[in-house]
Every structure is written in C-alpha cells, then in structure tokens.
Amino acid sequence: MEIDRAIRDCSDRRLQTKYQNATYVIQRAFSLYDFQQVAFSFNGGKDSTVLLHLLRAGYFLYKEEMGSFNGNMDSVLKCPIRTIYFETSSAFPEINSFTYETAASYDLQLDIIRLDFKSGLETLLKEKTTKAIFLGTRIGDPNAIGQEQFSPSSTGWPPFMRVNPILDWSYRDVWAFILTCKVPYCSLYDRGYTSIGSIYDTEPNALLCIPHQSGDKENFKPAYCLSDGRLERAGRAKKLASKNENIPIMSNGLKNTNPHQSCSFSASIIAVGDEILFGSVEEKIGATLCKKLNAIGWRVSHITVVGNDIDLIADELEHRKCKDDLIFLFGALGPLHSDVSLAGVAKAFGVRLAPDEEFEEYLRHIMGNHSTGNRNEMALLPEGITELLHHDKLVVPLIKCCNVMLLSATNTDELEQQWDCLLQLCSSPLVQMGPFISKQLSTKLYDVEIAAVLSKLCLDFPDIHIGCHRQSRAGPLIINFVGKDHERIELASHILSQKFDFGAFSELSSG
Ligand SMILES: Cc1cc2nc3c(=O)[nH]c(=O)nc-3n(C[C@H](O)[C@H](O)[C@H](O)COP(=O)(O)O)c2cc1C
Ligand SMILES: Nc1ncnc2c1ncn2[C@@H]1O[C@H](COP(=O)(O)OP(=O)(O)OP(=O)(O)O)[C@@H](O)[C@H]1O
Ligand SMILES: [Mg+2]
Questions:
Q1: CATH says 437-508 is which class?
Q2: What does the pLDDT average to over 275-304?
Q3: In terms of Cα–Cα distance, which of 425, 374, 429, 384 is closest to 406?
Q4: CATH superfamily, domain at 2-173
Q5: N or C: where does the chain have the smaller number of CB atoms within 10 Å of the terminal CB?
Q6: If you measure from the C-alpha of residue 57 to the centroid of ligand 3, how many angstroms do you get, rounded to a whole number?
Q7: Which atom from ligand 2 is nearest to the alpha carbon of 51?
Q8: Looking at ligand 1, which residue's alpha carbon is closest to its atom 1?
Q9: Residue 290: in which H helix or E strand, if any?
Q10: Which atom of ligand 2 lies at the shortest distance from residue 113's CA?
Q11: CATH architecture of structural domain 259-424
C-alpha cells in the first residue's frame, strides 16, 4: 500500500511515530465499530486530506491483520468509508472541487450536507446509524481543547464518538506527511493559504508574502514554507470573544478592568516546594521579586508557599488568577515526580497537558540524547493557554499560561537574569510604571504614644502605605512610608514628626 510504503521508506523517525500512533487509533476504531456505522468528516482541507490517507492506510493494515485479502488486492486498497461534507455557499470553489474530485478518485461514499454542523449531524444520525466520526482536529485548533483521540460529542450535540487520529500532529507533521507521501492537496495551499475557513474570513498568510515589484500582483510561498506552525491561522480573521468585548485588552495582553486603576497593577507570588515547608530550604526568590516588582511600580498583594501537590497549586491559582494582573510561580518545574507545577496550572485553567513541539525542540537542544522515549515529558505544557517568551540570553524560553508567569529560577542570580530578559521583551507582560519609593523613620516612642496619630495619618494619606515593624522587641519602632509621590511621603512624615518633640524620629537610610 503506497502510503504505508512511503512512510516506512522515509528517514523521518518523528513522522513514522506519528503515523504509527494515528493508524493504531484508526485500526482500533475499525475494530470497535461496524464499518457502515463510522463516517469521515471531510472538507478538502489539509488536515482532513492527511486523515483521508491515514484512513486508507489504517483500513489496509486492519484488513491485513484480519487476513481478509481473499486474493483481491483491489478490495483492500480502497476504503469506501461513508464521508460527510458540510457544504456552504461561502466555501472556496477550489475547496469544493477538490473535495468532490478526491471523493470520486478514492471511492468515498460522499454525503453532502447543506445544514449547520449540529442540525446536519442530528439529521444524519436520524437517517443512518452513526456511532463514530473521524475528524482532522489537531491540538492548537480552537475546538481541540479538552479533546482526546476518542472524545464523545459534547453535551447538547447528537451522541457519537469523535475520533481524532491526528490530534497530536503539528503543522509541520501534516506537511511532512503530505510531501513524503506525495498526495494531492487543494491548490489554495500553494498560493499561501495555511488554514482554510470561508471566503469571507480567509486570506493568504501574510507571513508567506513574497515582496513584489511595484505593479506586480502579490505572490505567496506555498503553505509548507511556513516555519512557525503556531501562525497557521494568521490568515484567518479573528472572531472577537463576545464575553470580553467591553474589557480593553492592553498591548501586553493584560486586561484593564478598572478605568480608575489604569496606573496600578498587582501581582502575587507562589513558591512551590516541600523543602521550603520543611524548613530545609530558605526561600529568597519571593522577597527579591517583591523588590523588583515594587521598583517598576507594581504592588504585590500576596505571597504564598505551597507543597508539591497539584490540587494545592491549582486551588491557590484559582484564588489568585482573577484577583491579580499577574501571578509569578516558581519551583517544581521539570521531569521529576515532584515537578507538578505545570499540572497544577493546567488544572486551575481546566485544560490538559499536551506536547508542545516548539518547547520540545529547545529541550532537545540542551539535553541532547539524555531524554528517553519518543515523548519528552518535560515538553508537556498546558494546552491552548501557553505562550513561550523568547529571549536571546535564555537557553529555554519563559513559559506564560494566561496570566501565570512560570519562572525556572532556582536562586536569586538566576532570577536576576530571567527578570532582566522579561523586562526587555517587546511582548513583556510587565508594564513599567513609576516605582514605589519609601522613607523610613525610627523612634524610641512607645507604640501607645503614637498609635492615634498614625491612625489619623493613614486616613489623611490613603495614597501612602504607612507600616510599622521592629527588628527587636526592645529596639526602636520603624515606620515605613511607601508610595509613588515623593512630596506626599515627605508631607506625611513631616506631619508625624511635628506632633512630637524635636529629635523623636530619625530617618533611616533606605536599602
Ligand atoms: C463531524 C463534526 C462533529 C462535531 N462535533 C462537535 C462537538 O461534539 N462539540 C462541539 O462543540 N463542536 C463540534 N463540532 C464543531 C467543531 O468543534 C468546530 O466548530 C468546527 O470544526 C468548525 O471549526 P471552525 O469554527 O474553526 O471553522 C463538530 C464538527 C463536525 C464537523
Ligand atoms: N465543512 C466541513 N465538512 C466536513 N468536515 C469538516 C468541515 N469543516 C471542518 N470539518 C472537520 O473538522 C476538521 C478540522 O477542521 P480544520 O478547518 O481545522 O482543518 P482542515 O480544514 O482539514 O485544514 P485547515 O486547517 O487547513 O483548514 C477537518 O479536518 C474535518 O474533519
Ligand atoms: Mg479548514
């Protein structure tokens, strides 16, 4: 069978593994369901084109395993699977013609449905028993979140099993398969289209545009030239999330929910580590982070230490994720049994951990052959919410999941480096504002002598944080004024000093 042979003969180990896994899923589906009770959802797109040929190969391998050749090779080389195409008037004519021609060439039993997906499937299921439907959904597709290779249809949809044999395939895997097997594909992909929706929302991908001489028509490179698969949908118009339509999104992706707080950002810090809780490791990164955040005008609202426990991390994040603009989380990142931070993040956001090819590539670079198996466990990242932040000075990019910033720093020197990189990134989540400044006064007055004056001062200066602490019970009381306005801090400390005898307070040098 030509597909199986092409993959076996190629030298691409990764593609061979993906092929084996996908055809395994397909063969299992053919064992589980009657052939007439499964359907293939085909729309002429690149993903469903890959799936078509995997189905042909999977069907062949399944028949071969069952020993059903009967001397008639032709019967096993064809996979006359029931095929459904949801046709709309907004489909590209090239997609329509490719779908029809392909269905005819491979003897697919094509059913054209001119209804929306849900109503169409309801009608289909009433007319023909359909237990499972093969789809070309891949991780990274907006509708892939939470899906597995076998995923029952969602609540509210007619009941059937969604079978997603290429769920873990990347954009690069798809093109590696198409080019290795030399199978025909829709001509739009040779004209710079990288993912195809309707004629109203799809354009060639601008990243493939070839600069043209004035007067010439714009030309585009073929889809397989796109090097960063995460940008395959760059030619698709974005659908606005209606829920958040009224919330301004700032250039760094942070939501500015309160117009009166446009100049105030808050962060919280979560340290993960049983060692810190057992007292065997002293946690210093949190304190350094507080100083750094204050220096760029951010307020730190909360700092916690949690043990290496997925549920505890998820609970903590669930509390903080809506309260703060950014949450810094460090500790428990890696491949060990105790490295559960990413799983905690995934749980807090209700997504699963999925292999991230780009991250895997970075890890492979630094670890060489030291990782085992086909799958690098460290490259599993929360699906659909992860952004990798690159910087030339970092061997591995920083990981950001929604508003959670994961830091791999294990000491304050490493933190310094990651922090500097984070600030320099043009997509930095850290908006830099006027720093917090502070003034410290020391006094030997009794607490009861100054308590009332301090309370009144707090009411008169709501913009200044006035805190008190001592370094020893018998030592002086230290009063700390923190705010962003130097003059207001001076005024508040002056008013306090004036209420008592001259010399009752002395200023401590900051730092
Ligand atoms: C055969 C088939 C089954 C589907 N099943 C579901 C489902 O169970 N739940 C769901 O939310 N969407 C389902 N969808 C809709 C898809 O998730 C998605 O909206 C569709 O592929 C369109 O993607 P697009 O919006 O990127 O064009 C299904 C679509 C097809 C074609
Ligand atoms: N109109 C449709 N008719 C039948 N199946 C569809 C239709 N639209 C989507 N699908 C199913 O959903 C899968 C995912 O769609 P998606 O648009 O992400 O991929 P594609 O169309 O194959 O490739 P591309 O991303 O290049 O458009 C398809 O592979 C197909 O199985
Ligand atoms: Mg498509």
A1: alpha beta
A2: 96
A3: 429
A4: HUPs (3.40.50.620)
A5: C
A6: 22
A7: 29
A8: 41
A9: helix 285-295
A10: 3
A11: 3-Layer(aba) Sandwich (3.40)
370 C-beta neighbours (distance < 10 Å), count: 8
Residues 147-206 have pLDDT tens digits of 999 999 999 999 999 999 999 999 999 999 999 999 999 999 999 999 999 999 999 999
Q: How far is the CA of 134 from the centre of ligand 2 (A)?
A: 11
Taking the C-alpha atoms of residue 104 and residue 110, their distance in angstroms, rounded to an integer, is 8
Protein residues with CB under 6 Å of any ligand 1 atom: 41, 117, 133, 135, 142-143, 153-154, 157, 162, 197
The runs of H, that is alpha helices, within 67-206 are: 73-77, 93-105, 117-127, 171-181
pLDDT of 318: 94
Confidence of residue 511 (pLDDT cuts 50, 70, 90): low
How many whole angstroms from 264 Cα to the centroid of ligand 2?
44
pLDDT: which is higher, 371 or 67 = 67
Nearest atom (ligand 1) to Cα of 135: 1
Whether 201 and 216 have beta carbons less than 8 Å apart is answered as no
Amino acid at 394: L
> What pLDDT does 262 receive?
37
In the predicted model, what is the mean pLDDT of residues 422-447? 92
| Alpha carbon nearest to ligand 2 atom 25, residue | 195
Please choose from 48, 116, 138 the residue to mutate so as to test ligand 2's pocket, defined by most ligand atoms within 8 A of CB. Answer: 48
pLDDT at 252: 43
Is-same-fold flag (259-424; 437-508)?
no
Percentage above 90 pLDDT, the chain: 73
How many angstroms does the Cα of residue 77 sit away from the middle of ligand 2? 24
**Residues 187-201: b if buried by 16+ CB within 10 A, e if exposed:** ebbeebbbbbbeeee
Q: Where are the domains of the chain?
A: 2-173, 187-235, 259-424, 437-508
pLDDT at 445 over 90: yes
Q: How far apart are CA 400 and CA 164, in angstroms?
A: 27
Residue having the nearest C-alpha atom to atom 14 of ligand 1: 117
CA 401 to ligand 1 centroid distance, Å: 25
CA nearest to 445, candidates 467, 475, 466: 475
250: Cβ contacts below 8 Å, ≥ 6 apart? 256, 431
Which of 41, 82, 95, 117 has most ligand 1 atoms within 8 Å of its beta carbon, as the pocket-test mutant? Answer: 117
Residue 469 pLDDT class (50, 70, 90 cuts): very high
3-class secondary structure, 470: strand
